[in-house]
Design brief:
Rossmann fold, 12 strands, Arc Repressor Mutant, subunit A, globular
Length: about 230
């Protein structure tokens, strides 16, 4: 039974989402302020929760601050709840390491669909994912979801890892944004969706000085991982 940490100060909404998630066979822990959410996530040592659903507007500590602290040492996927139509919140969340976002007020059915998509990306154990992928100084280990570059293990969010794996599997070939969105993020690319760009920007920062050569932008087409 997947475990969800729900951090939102709207108690009525939390009760509704909890009831819906539990009817879909999820276990839910709900907390109602940022500091409690952060301490709850940390207390589990990143083992008990499969996905964190995090509201932006929270008392005690806002959602962006919670996310910033989480990403120091916790890679649990985070789905952020943002104000409807507020593109800035979405972009900032993605830049800080959120894996997905959903505008409020949200449809419980869509939330469940997004959470299930995240779980499919992070918990897949299909046999074809078990082989180590090597290209140049980059090594991808799908069975353990580890990425090693220049002999150093990278600290990646689930979305960053997924993108790197998809690019590595297609090393030397251009992968369009539509394919990256569907295979790495589990959703269709929509107009003005900058999720791919934001995640790849963070990924390049973690890869260091050679990242522009390693992951090349092919204008109007997509992205390509250098074959080494």
């Amino acid at each position: 039974m997947p475990n969800i940490l729900l951090i939102d100060d709207d108690i009525e909404l939390c009760e509704m989402l909890t009831e819906y998630l539990e009817s879909e066979s999820f276990a839910v822990t709900a907390v109602h302020d940022g500091k409690s959410g952060l301490s709850t996530a940390r207390a589990t040592n990143n083992n008990n929760f499969d996905v964190i659903v995090l509201d932006v507007m929270l008392p005690e500590m806002d959602g962006f601050s919670v996310l910033r602290e989480l990403r120091h040492n916790i890679t649990t996927p985070v789905l952020m709840l943002t104000a409807k139509g507020d593109d800035i919140d979405r972009i900032v969340g993605l830049e800080m390491g959120a894996d997905d976002y959903l505008p409020k007020p949200c449809n419980p059915r869509e939330l469940v669909a997004r959470v299930k998509a995240i779980l499919r990306r992070t918990q897949s154990t299909a046999p074809q994912r078990l082989d180590v992928i090597k290209t140049g100084e980059l090594e991808i280990q799908p069975s353990s979801r580890k990425a090693i570059y220049q002999s150093e293990q990278l600290s990646l969010t689930s979305s960053e890892y997924n993108l790197l794996e998809v690019l590595a599997k297609n090393s030397g070939q251009v992968v369009d944004k539509e394919t990256l969105s569907e295979q790495a993020l589990g959703k269709k690319l929509t107009d003005y969706d900058r999720s791919i760009d934001m995640h790849l920007s963070k990924l390049r920062q973690k890869l260091g000085d050679d990242s522009q050569q390693l992951i090349q932008t092919v204008r109007g087409k997509g992205y390509q991982l250098s074959a080494g």
